[in-house]
Specification:
2 copies of one chain form a homodimer. In chain A, the strands form 3 sheets. In chain A, strands 3, 4, 5, 6, 7, 14 and 15 form a 7-stranded mixed sheet that branches. The longest helix of chain A is centred in the middle third of the chain and has 13 residues, at about 135-145. By secondary structure, chain A is an alpha/beta fold. In chain A, α3 links the parallel β8 (about 155) and β9 (about 175-180). Chain A contains 10 helices and 15 strands. The two termini of chain A are about 20 Å apart. Chains A and B meet through α8 and β13 of A and α8 and β13 of B.
């Protein structure tokens, strides 16, 4: 009765440089009835995130590489359609790492599934964004990794993205001056509407010198904190404008994920010494211990209207590769999601 | 009676690239009898240190730039020859920042003068090296900035220098595996004699690929800590071989101090994210609060033979520019000093 078919995406080839449509192939699988200890789930939403690009390389990293021909993985939320597990009932909403597909049957622990909390008042898609991995990334990165203090001047690249837009707002809530960077007028307007004191349009700035001039104009006395989602010129400009003892949380470098050759690093790393900079990379899973505080704070901030979130939604599993590829072209404002049903 | 003449060195011009002899000019001054609250000192030793190169640029930094035509400053130890200050008597040994000259008359606080402790059993020159600024730099940098832990695999560039040779030994005392890098067979032998498990001859390695291969051979499982005195290829190789959560104390980048153009940074900074690296620059004066612990530990370690120190001594004030320029050619093993009398 409850057997259904699920379409899902696998790598057809490892992308070289910018991912392209032919790097992905769609597969149809049967989603069987669950055995003992298993659940059958129909996904409602799936997430595409920049970090997935790293898993498309065949190399050792903090997560294993995707395999050619195997359905990709990623965050998803869905609804239990049949259950062989005592803790799960039909209709339960679950979050899992079994994204990039319309549904699945698996033991919950095999796909890192867990039930969504029912009392948050948040839409289910939020658990892939502001109340999920990207939100915790922003929260842990700006508060713990960057050691945010009231009164700091904070520079956030990728400020219109899922993580960056949360960083902007958390820093404002904590009493900081916040300068964002985003690409294009629409995103700049969004970042300002979220409370940023200034937002640089890095596309309008044109090149490194333009970006640096814009940052200098926005923060003439320099910056105390940099939250990096972008890398490249943004990282270099942040070092250039860093005040003594500035702290940098290096979350991602999306401008470099598709590089096919090693790219020269910031030409001013010597300033790390004299300015006594602290530069820290981080991965959200390292900060899983902050989950309870994160959910408490987020619920309060969202509930009281202090924190807003944006989503860019593409419709249908067919669109998943386009959604993913769009991340590298700045196609998203806030969290990029694929709606599946 | 006690008036004498002192020769001292000033900048004749700001060096462009590698400093050269014509950038320095020698001046003769009369050292007057001390007034009330002043001391007259004949310097016995003066220090040349890599950080001084930074003060030769006309730019804002953590210490003000040297001025053309004014006698340079730096660490010195000498003997009080006349005193108008109640706390100082003729014959007292004092440390000051009035180096690059044979003697001076000044209020102690104007030249950051303080009496040397008399009970350490150390030669006076040690207060310009292992028991002075370079020693504290090593101590604070490896223990606090790099958060050294027993069992760490530690990579130290400039390992035969004043700071590096102390870092090597402190890390060994703390139960770590230590890999140094130094230029030439003689220095490599020294670093090994100080207890390093391995020492790379970066000159023999030739280029970045050679350096990386040598580091990989010495630390096939990677490094937990990097102490940077050199920058450039060494910094990049350290990032490449860093284990997850590696900590880097960035003390100096002597390979880059004479750059006339911005130099591309490490081409692998993207690894900062996935490896969750912590990179911290530091200046010794920030860690002055460690002075008492430092002197206690150093006295014990030197007294018990656990920690040795090397000096490279040039004789006479005439040699001061050569001593300084020699730092950038690797002319020193351990602390580079000029003996004045």
């Amino acid at each position: 009765m409850s057997v259904f078919t699920s379409r899902g995406w696998a790598l057809a080839s490892r992308p070289v440089g910018e991912p392209k449509a032919s790097d992905f192939g769609i597969h149809t699988e049967e989603v069987p009835e669950p055995g003992n200890g298993e659940i059958q789930v129909r996904n409602h939403w799936m997430s595409v995130d920049p970090y997935m690009r790293g898993r498309m390389y065949d190399r050792e990293s903090y997560v294993p590489p995707f395999q050619i021909g195997e359905i990709l993985q990623g965050g998803a939320v869905g609804e239990v359609t049949a259950s062989g597990h005592p803790d799960y009932a039909v209709g339960d909403l679950v979050q899992s790492m079994a994204g990039w597909r319309e549904g699945f049957t698996a033991a919950p622990e095999a796909v890192m599934a867990q039930k969504l909390p029912s009392d948050t008042g948040l839409p289910t898609s939020a658990f892939l964004g502001i109340a999920g991995m990207p939100g915790l990334t922003a929260y842990a990165g700006i508060l713990r990794v960057a050691e945010l203090k009231e009164g700091d001047t904070v520079f956030v690249s990728g400020a219109a993205g899922a993580v960056g837009s949360a960083v902007v707002q958390i820093a404002k809530i904590k009493g900081c001056t916040v300068i964002g960077s985003a690409g294009g007028e629409e995103k700049v307007a969004l970042v300002k509407s979220l409370g940023a004191d200034e937002c640089i349009d890095y596309r309008a700035a044109g090149d490194y010198d333009g970006l640096l001039a814009a940052l200098r104009a926005a923060a003439p006395k320099g910056i105390d904190v940099y939250f990096d989602n972008v890398g490249g010129d943004h990282f270099q400009a942040a070092i250039e404008m860093a005040r003594p003892f500035a702290r940098m949380a290096i979350c991602g470098m999306i401008s470099q994920y598709n590089d096919t050759e090693p790219r020269p690093g910031p030409n001013n790393v010597i300033q790390i010494v004299g300015k006594q900079l602290q530069i820290r990379g981080f991965i959200v899973s390292t900060h899983a211990d902050m989950q309870a505080d994160f959910i408490n704070d987020m619920s309060e901030w969202i509930g009281s209207g202090k924190l807003k979130f944006e989503e860019t939604v593409m419709e249908g599993i067919e669109e998943a590769p386009n959604a993913f590829m769009g991340l590298f072209q700045g196609a998203n404002t806030g969290k990029m999601l694929v709606k599946l049903s």
